[in-house]
Amino acid sequence: HIDERIDIRGNYEIEEIGIAFNEMLTTMEEIDDSRQRFVANVSHELKTPLSSMKVLAESLLCQDDVPNELYKEFMEDINAEINRETKIINDLLTLVTLDKKESYLNIDNTNINALVEQVMRMLKPIADKKDVILEIESYREVFAEVDETKMYLVFMNLIENSIKYNNEYGKVTVTINADHRDLNIQIMDTGVGIPPESVDKVFQRFYRVDKTRSRDTGGTGLGLSIVNKTILLHGGSIKCLSEEGVGTTFIIRLPLSQTMK
Ligand code: ADP
């Protein structure tokens, strides 16, 4: 009887190991697939500005007497493409750093209101160009243990988007709140909104609802994946609510203290 039991148990364990092994293989295949997709996306995104630069440079090279004005115009376009390429590479490097297993945070007790105000001051010139009003709603100053530099980038990305994808004379309202445990922030805009089928995809790398519009406004499609990664690293969460033609709201929850993570 004992021998039988051992055998049954042994078979059972072998079966379990088999299942776990198959699951591991599937996960590895999935990782491989997503890595391949990522590399394909990166190559495509990096090639686009390069192709434009090549066309511009070649059309200058094949003319003998290029008028000064035309030369300058082409050079400005080449320069804009270089800036775009640089932004994609910088965003990719940021993502790679956040992806690392040993990715760490430089935690400081940070005044969140002051950080948001600083971002708004930086973005005011772009908002003014579209007559978009930037507003903070907060009843008290909130301090939280965060990596200030990384969270500055988070607010920068989100508030810049809410201006970029806003209408003229629109509004952006950042609401800062906290309970005993969490910091709650909402970034709400009165912009173009996101179609329902895209709302869950905006945090994916390189995902853009409208590629042309995003490219025209200098987007790389990586901003929200950097935002999402950073918030997850802090032990928080972010979600997006949106209605086309009405506006978009990003809701962030972050633990006030990293020991409550
Ligand atoms: P991008 O560099 O294209 O702005 P993001 O990762 O920041 O990339 O955003 C991904 C996409 O999500 C954008 O291309 C845009 O289509 C959509 N999006 C992001 N924020 C907003 C917003 N506030 N309102 C409407 N659409 C938005």
Describe the model.
Its EC number is 2.7.13.3. Residues 41-258 form the Histidine kinase domain. With 261 residues, the chain is of the alpha+beta class. It is 55% helix and 18% strand. It is built from 6 helices and 7 strands. A 5-stranded mixed β-sheet has the order 2-4-5-7-6, covered by helices on one side. A two-stranded antiparallel sheet has the order 1-3. A hairpin with a 3-residue loop joins strand 4 (171-178) and strand 5 (182-189). Helix 1 (2-61) runs antiparallel to helix 2 and helix 2 runs parallel beside helix 6. The structure holds adenosine-5'-diphosphate. Adenosine-5'-diphosphate binds next to helix 4 and helix 6.
Walk me through the topology.
Layout: H1 2-61, H2 68-99, E1 107-111, H3 112-129, E2 133-138, E3 143-147, H4 148-164, E4 171-178, E5 182-189, H5 211-216, H6 223-233, E6 237-243, E7 247-255
Parallel strand pairs: 2-4
Antiparallel strand pairs: 1-3, 4-5, 5-7, 6-7
Helix pairs in contact: 1-2, 2-6, 3-4, 4-6
The structure holds adenosine-5'-diphosphate.
Let me know the average pLDDT.
91
Which structural class best describes the helix and strand composition? alpha+beta
Total strand count, please? Answer: 7
Major sheet summary line? 5 strands, mixed
What sequence of helices (H) and strands (E) makes up the elements?
A: HHEHEEHEEHHEE
Q: Low-confidence segments, ≥5 residues, pLDDT <50?
A: none
Shape field: globular
Sheet with the most strands: spatial strand order:
2-4-5-7-6
Helix content: 55-70%
Number of helices: 6
Strand content: 15-25%
Radius of gyration: 24 Å
Distance between the first and last residues' Cα: 50 Å
Bound molecules: adenosine-5'-diphosphate
